[in-house]
Amino acid sequence: xxxxxxxxxxxxxxxxxxxxxxxxxxxxxxxxxxxxxxxxxxxxxxxxxxxxxxxxxxxxxxxxxxxxxxxxxxxxxxxxxxxxxxxxxxxxxxxxxxxxxxxxxxxxxxxxxxxxxx
Length: 118
What we know:
This protein is mainly beta. It is 14% helix and 42% strand. It has one helix at residues 4-19, and strands spanning 24-27, 34-43, 52-57, 68-75, 84-90, 97-102, 109-117. The chain starts with a helix and ends with a strand. This is Salivary secreted peptide.
């Protein structure tokens, strides 16, 4: 019981770090999962500004009948100037997801987002 605050702090630190990583995977993508959506999200840079965009699945007006089991976000910039992806709402175990994409200052971003489910 004495170590509970340390364990909780370590868990929160790992969660926050993983939630903002450049290449992110949430959930588990199993052999029987199919791809529900694939999106390529590109945003150009603006001088001395941070550019952001939210990705929503499913699109407005469309209903998803399948559960999301895993999400993979891949940053296409490999030179260290890419952006960050953060899971805002939904995700694995839900039927919807909102991912916030954010660039570094004075840079753009280029992400491939794959949503899997069954």
